[in-house]
From TrEMBL:
<dbReference type="InterPro" id="IPR036388">
    <property type="entry name" value="WH-like_DNA-bd_sf"/>
</dbReference>
<dbReference type="Pfam" id="PF13412">
    <property type="entry name" value="HTH_24"/>
</dbReference>
<dbReference type="InterPro" id="IPR049874">
    <property type="entry name" value="ROK_cs"/>
</dbReference>
<dbReference type="InterPro" id="IPR043129">
    <property type="entry name" value="ATPase_NBD"/>
</dbReference>
<dbReference type="Pfam" id="PF00480">
    <property type="entry name" value="ROK"/>
</dbReference>
<dbReference type="InterPro" id="IPR036390">
    <property type="entry name" value="WH_DNA-bd_sf"/>
</dbReference>
<comment type="similarity">
    <text>Belongs to the ROK (NagC/XylR) family.</text>
</comment>
<dbReference type="InterPro" id="IPR000600">
    <property type="entry name" value="ROK"/>
</dbReference>
<protein>
    <submittedName>
        <fullName>ROK family protein</fullName>
    </submittedName>
</protein>
C-alpha cells in the first residue's frame, strides 16, 4: 500500500495521536502493518522492541477486529513454521464523494482505496446542499449494497466540494459557484444517516491527494490543477497538503489573468483565470465566433475532430493557465504539475499551451526538472483522494485504539 499525504491541518492531530497512543498499543503496532507486507510476531517484536507476549496480545486484538488477517506461514528453519499477519483492507469500507459543478462521482472503496462500487451522475451543485447531499446519501446507500457492505462496516465518509472549505469544520466558505452552501453543515447533514467520521475538503485538494497516493507517492512537491467548470489547484509541499489559514490555498481560478482585465467572473471581479480559461469560458468564446458548443462534451468532440477554431481556443486557454502557473512555479518550485478535469481530455493541445508559457516565463532553475503531465487516474482522483483522506484519519493509532475499545 502506498503512502498517504497528511493534510497540513491534520498534521498536528496526527503527531498528537502518535504521542498520545502508547508505543505498545494495538493502534501503534497496526501502523507497521498498513503497508500490506506480511509479518510474524517475531518480526513485529524485533521492529518495535516490545516483548513477544505484548506483541501477541496486540495481534489478537487486531485479528478480532478484522483489521489484520492471517497471511500464511513463513518457511521454517526447523520446527513449526511461524504464522504471518497482514493488513486486511476488506475489513471496513469508505464512502468517497467527489462533487463538481455539474457532476458527482460517488464510490465505495476498501481501506486501501480499491474501488468496490462506483457511479458517476449529472448533479448540479447549484441545486443547493439539501438536494445534493440527499442525492449523495441515496446513491451511497445503493452503492454500499451493491458492494456487499453494510452501514456497520462503513468507517468514514470523505467529500470533495468545488469551492473553499474550512477543513476543521467541513463547512464551505463563500463558494462562488455554490449558491446556498456558504457555512452549511455538510458533516452534520450526512451524519444524520451515517454516524461515522466525515471529512470534507475542496475537491482539488482531494484530487491532489488521490493522484499523489496512487501514482506519485515519491513526489514531495507537486500541484494538481483541475480545469473544468471552474479552475483550482491542490498544493503538496514537503509531502503535506497545504490548506492555508482559512482553507483558501490553491484557489488558482481567481488569480487575475495577465492578459485580460475585462471579463467578469462569478466571484465579482474582472479578468479572473476561471472567467477566461475554464471549460465554459472556452465554449463561450467559440459560440461568439459562430460555433455551436452547448456543452463540455461538444467542445471536446470538436477538438478531437480536428476543428481548427476549437483547437486554437483550447491552446490559447492553456497559455492563459500557463501564465498564472509560471508565477506559481517561481513561488513554490514544484517538481510536478498534474493537469486534470474535463478540458484536459481534449488531448495534448491544452497541455501544450500550458507548457509553452510555463517554460518560457519561469526561472530556469525552477523548471530544470519540472514535469507537466495529464492526470493518470482517469477521473478517479477525487474519490481516491476522499478515501485516502478518511483512512489517514480513521486508521491513525488513536482512532484504531478507540475503535478496538468500542
Amino acid at each position: 500500500m502506498s503512502s498517504v499525504v497528511i493534510p497540513d491541518s491534520q498534521a498536528g492531530t496526527e503527531l498528537g495521536a502518535l504521542k498520545t497512543a502508547l508505543p505498545s498499543s494495538a493502534g501503534s503496532l497496526f501502523q507497521l502493518l498498513r503497508d500490506g507486507a506480511p509479518r510474524t510476531r517475531a518480526d513485529l517484536a524485533t521492529q518495535t522492541g516490545l516483548a513477544r507476549s505484548t506483541v501477541s496480545a496486540r495481534v489478537e486484538e487486531l485479528l478480532s477486529s478484522g483489521l489484520i488477517s492471517y497471511a500464511g506461514e513463513n518457511t521454517s528453519t526447523g520446527g513449526r513454521p511461524p504464522t504471518t499477519f497482514a493488513f486486511n483492507p476488506a475489513a471496513r469500507c469508505v464512502l468517497a464523494v467527489d462533487l463538481g459543478g455539474t457532476h458527482a462521482r460517488i464510490a465505495v472503496t476498501d481501506l486501501a482505496a480499491t474501488v468496490l462500487a462506483e457511479e458517476e451522475q449529472e448533479l448540479a451543485i447549484s441545486l443547493g446542499p439539501a438536494a445534493v447531499l440527499d442525492a449523495v446519501l441515496q446513491t451511497g446507500s445503493r452503492l454500499l449494497s451493491q458492494a456487499g457492505k453494510t452501514a456497520q462496516e462503513l468507517i468514514g465518509i470523505g467529500v470533495g466540494l468545488p469551492g473553499p472549505v474550512e477543513f476543521a469544520t467541513g463547512r464551505p466558505t463563500s463558494p462562488p459557484i455554490m449558491p446556498g452552501w456558504d457555512g452549511y453543515d455538510v458533516p452534520g447533514h450526512l451524519r444524520g444517516t451515517f454516524d461515522v467520521p466525515i471529512l470534507v475538503d475542496n475537491d482539488v485538494n482531494i484530487m491532489a491527494l488521490g493522484e499523489h497516493d496512487m501514482v506519485y507517492p515519491e513526489v514531495s512537491h507537486m500541484m494538481f490543477v483541475k480545469i473544468a467548470t471552474g479552475i483550482g489547484s491542490g498544493i503538496i509541499s514537503d509531502g503535506r497538503l497545504q490548506h492555508g489559514a482559512q482553507g483558501a490555498a490553491g484557489d488558482l481560478g481567481h488569480i487575475a489573468s495577465p492578459d485580460d482585465e475585462q471579463t467578469p467572473c462569478a466571484c465579482g471581479n474582472l479578468g479572473c483565470l476561471e472567467a477566461v480559461a475554464s471549460g465554459p469560458a472556452i465554449a463561450a468564446r467559440l459560440r461568439a465566433s459562430g460555433l455551436e458548443v452547448p456543452s463540455h462534451a461538444t467542445l471536446i468532440d470538436l477538438v478531437r475532430a480536428g476543428d481548427l477554431e476549437a483547437i486554437r481556443a483550447v491552446r490559447e486557454a492553456g497559455r492563459k493557465v500557463g501564465a498564472v502557473l509560471a508565477s506559481c512555479v517561481n513561488l513554490l518550485n514544484p517538481e510536478l504539475i498534474v493537469i486534470g478535469g474535463l478540458v484536459v481530455t481534449a488531448g495534448e493541445h491544452f497541455l501544450a499551451g500550458i507548457r509553452e508559457t510555463v517554460y518560457s516565463r519561469s526561472l530556469p532553475l525552477a523548471t530544470q526538472h519540472l514535469r507537466i503531465v495529464a492526470t493518470r487516474t482517469s477521473g478517479r482522483a477525487g474519490v481516491l483522494g476522499a478515501s485516502a483522506l478518511v483512512t489517514s484519519h480513521t486508521l491513525s493509532p488513536e482512532s484504531i485504539n478507540a475503535l478496538l475499545a468500542a
